[in-house]
Amino acid sequence: MAQQPQMVDGDSGFSGINGRIDPASLQPGVAAHAENCRFRNGVAESRKGVVKPAWCNNITPATTGDAINPFTTIYGAGVFRDPNSLEYILFAADGDVYFTRQNNAARKLTLPPGVKVHGPVTFTQAFNKILMFRGNDLAPLVLSDIGTGFEDLLGHWKSGTTYLETNEVAWGPWKGTSSVTFSGGTVTVTTSAAHGYITGADITVKDAAEAEYNGRFNITVTGDSTFTYAITGTPSTPATGTVEVSNMSEYWQANASPDTPTAGEEPSSASTKWTQQSDIMPNADAGIYIQNRLAVITSYDTGTFGYTKKADMVYFSDILDHVHTFFNQQMRINQGDDAVLVELVKLNENQVLAFKDKSVSVLTGIVVGDGNALGQSIAQETLISNYGLAARGAATMVGTDCYFYASRRGIVSITQTEQNKARGVDVPLSESIQPIIDRVDPRYESKIRMEIWDSKLYVALPLDDGSAGNNAIAVFDFLSQSWSSLDVGSAIKPKEFFKATFSGTERLFFTSEDGFINLVEEDELGDHVADSAASNKISPNAV
Questions:
Q1: Burial group, residue 176, by CB count within 10 angstroms (0-12, 13-18, 19+)
Q2: What DSSP line would sit under 441-454, residue for residue?
Q3: DSSP letter (8 states) at residue 155
């Protein structure tokens, strides 16, 4: 009797998941759903856990302790490579900015007087410096050297300084006050009109007869025309004198001789010794570096020296200059729609993708021309007109292609043809995990983040109820060309991704909503989670 062939029950190996097809119709080796898994070489195995390195978290005591605690809020993180090729992780948390390297305790960087970080920031390396962007309401800060710390984009005018021809300063506009009072260590300022400031802004106060009121302070906004700040000392109250306040958002240049200002002559529209500048790079949420230029999205209006509500302008800096721009390096990305610019992504050496929330354009011909001018080669072309990017940070380059999250559509891409032309790909990469995409909370799509590492695409998503932020990471493996898993667990709360060197190789980190900085795929025992009973306040939790 002939021997019957042996029947194998189940799949001999797995390559990924597909949640859109009925499970009974799936190809061999494809799972309908997987959590916390990786598929390599046909083997399904648990992912390695995320860890919370002591050297980039809140250690108690700061220098000798082993308890790993969260910060209250982490506002942003990035990597700075100094002129000596030393790499530092920078992160802003609980009002301060820290720097650290592997196995070195995090230490605070010096900030300008009165500056605290209490809002989202992004870090962009440009030239041999790194800029910390703080949004439309606050000027970016610049770090050239770890020892010096962050400095103002342009220094504030000082009464005792003699300024030479072409020297530039920040000064004004000044707003009058109707009341400045003191009680219990706190100053309360009432401005004559709505001030337009935000909590966390650094505001300069001048011309109070009582010296304790004057200076540069971090404020808390309590109303449209009121704010508070803390001081030491016990000045008499209310303050006397003609007290004025400013966020120092105007820039001035000293005139040439014989109209050079003397020491103590402050900039103003009435002065013949100073000229107001409109060629200073504006405030922004983030920036990119391309062709020796810095590029930012902004709503700055050079005509009014102020910011509008709609961001649809892209400003390029002068070559090798992070401070200055020019009128022919400023362009409006607007095809007659109401969409706002969300993100700039460097497509290649002379092309930039300009993502709006409802469309995508490409800027081509960004070249190093004669002098600072961008030249006549730059052009704008609309690639996608019916959908755009859901959030800043929700786009990343993978080789020559750009992947991004489009609202209500999922994860899509833009690819470059052999002729170096960019075109949108109609079929979403996320088609096979559409049931997961359908669970994304549309109220919190602005929190979605995306990064590429280890030939895998990591997409942080706010599933179901996203009010607490992202609670899952969808992982696509480019080697197997399939989705691997949905990473979930109490440690999976990604806020921002960033990549830095760990043990000599580039690794993926993320800041989390619970105040930790995490290193992905590191521990065989599982995810590290907060545990008040553990000696170091952290314990592994199997995934």
A1: exposed
A2: -GGGGGG-EEEEET
A3: P
Q: How confident is the model at residue 286, as a pLDDT?
A: 93
Q: Are strands 351-356 and 306-307 parallel, antiparallel or unpaired?
A: unpaired
Q: Which tokens belong to 4?
A: 């019957």
pLDDT at 312: 86
Q: What is the pLDDT of residue 83?
A: 86
Q: Is residue 321 within 8 Å of residue 315, measured between CB atoms?
A: no
Helices then strands, counting H and E runs in the chain, come out as 1, 48
Tokens 């529209």 belong to which residue? 269
At 212, give phi and psi (nearest 5°): -60, -25
Beta-carbon contacts of residue 151 (< 8 Å; ≥ 6 apart): 112, 141, 142, 143, 144
**Helices of type H across 337-427:** none
Q: Which residue has 């703080």 as its token pair?
A: 134
Q: How many Cα atoms sit within 13 Å of 167 on the Cβ side?
A: 21
Query: What was the pLDDT predicted at 14?
Result: 66
Read off the DSSP letter of residue 284.
Answer: B
- The span from the CA of 107 to the CA of 301, in Å, is 38
For the chain of 543 residues, list the mean pLDDT of each consecutive stretch of 10: 50 68 75 86 87 93 79 97 92 97 94 95 93 94 95 94 94 96 97 95 96 96 97 94 96 92 90 92 94 91 77 90 88 81 92 93 80 73 91 94 92 76 79 94 96 97 96 95 94 97 96 97 93 91 82
Q: Where are the beta strands (DSSP E) in 29-174?
A: 30-31, 37-40, 43-46, 49-51, 58-60, 67-69, 74-81, 87-93, 96-100, 107-108, 122-126, 129-133, 141-143, 150-152, 168-170
Distance CA 243, CA 298 (A): 31
Cβ–Cβ < 8 Å for 298, 133:
no
Alpha carbons 61 and 308: distance in angstroms, whole number: 45
> Per the structure block, which two tokens stand in for 510?
């993320």
Q: What angle do CA 397, 401, 406 make, to 5 degrees?
A: 75
d(CA 49, CA 173): 51
Task: In whole angstroms, give the CA distance from residue 474 to residue 459.
Answer: 5
- For residue 6, the 8-state DSSP code is P
